[in-house]
Amino acid sequence: MTQPSPIVALRGLRLARGERTILHDVDLSVAPGEVVAVLGPSGCGKSTLLAALTGELAPAAGTVEVLGRPMPTGGRALLELRRGIGVMLQGNGLLTDLTVADNVALPLRTHTDLPDAIVRRLVEMKLHAVGLRAAADAYPRELSGGMARRVALARALALDPPLMIYDEPLTGLDPIASGVVMSLVRRLNDTLGLTSIVVTHHVHETLPVADRALVIANGRIVFSGTPAELERSDDAFVQQFLRGAPDGPIAFDAAPRAHRTPA
Fold first, then answer.
1. In angstroms, rounded to a whole number, what is the distance separating the alpha carbons of residues 149 and 146?
2. Which string of DSSP letters, residue by residue, matches 27-87?
3. pTM, to two decimals
4. Tens digit of each residue's pLDDT (9 = 90 or more) over 167-199
5. H or E element in which residue 144 lies
């Protein structure tokens, strides 16, 4: 049986900010339908990896393929590819002077020429999918943190992207709201036929809905496997991260290491 083409394929990837290498030797393949959790301590390079997946940061070496295409370097081709990637931002990014419905409608009105009646119907469907149809006329300031996060999720889904990327989706949420959001991530992934990458440091809330977990530390992927394999791992990097131990191979108190490629 032929294996389906990966939704994301990273090969020999090195990502840098100026002369400083943030991530190196990254190889990753994400299959259609997977929920992949990208875990790691703050400052480990998770956001840098996200920037590469959305085309905001060009590789210093290696290749990035998303949705079966090499990542364009800019222009119309990059804009077209990005329409197939839904991104839920860490800070929600909701516009405070727009209602919930208008926030969700924004991508549809920006990127399509659909009639207003169809836009309104699509917005209603997206809000229904996240359990917030009754909040359509509310403003972001009137929402709880968990509700605002779900509105951001509805907006990220507005253009029906096949790939969803979640940037720290649980930041600032209480345990109940965190559980609701992660349950939605899994349910929407399965019912809509999505592929999802969850970039987070919230391990225990994320692993129950993930098919696969990656751990990033000290500039590279130190673990890739199922959540069950992660919890059984005796790798020193993994154990330190899971336990939240201050001492170990992950240098929390040190300045970021500068990995330089020899001339």
1. 5
2. EEEE-TT-EEEEE--TTSSHHHHHHHHTTSS--SEEEEEETTEEPP-SHHHHHHHHTTEEE
3. 0.87
4. 989 888 888 888 989 999 999 999 999 999 999
5. none
Coil/strand/helix, residue 189: helix
For the chain, strand residue ranges (E) read 8-17, 20-30, 35-39, 61-66, 69-70, 85-88, 163-167, 195-200, 212-217, 220-225
Pick from 257, 208, 217: which is nearest to 241 by CA?
217
The whole-number pLDDT of residue 263 equals 38
User: Which pLDDT score is estimated for 257?
Assistant: 47
174-212 burial, b at 16+ Cβ within 10 Å, e below that, comes to: eeebbbbbbebbbebbeeeebbbbbbbbbbebbbebbbb
Question: Rg (Cα) of the chain, in Å, rounded?
Answer: 19
* Class level of CATH domain 8-84+161-243: alpha beta
pLDDT at res. 262: 43
Query: What tokens were used for 123?
Result: 């917005």
What is the pLDDT at residue 1? 60
Q: Which tokens sit at 214? A: 């990656």
pLDDT for 233: 85
The two beta strands, 195-200 and 35-39, are parallel
Regions in the chain scoring below 70 on pLDDT: 1-2, 244-263
> What is the identity of the amino acid at 259?
H
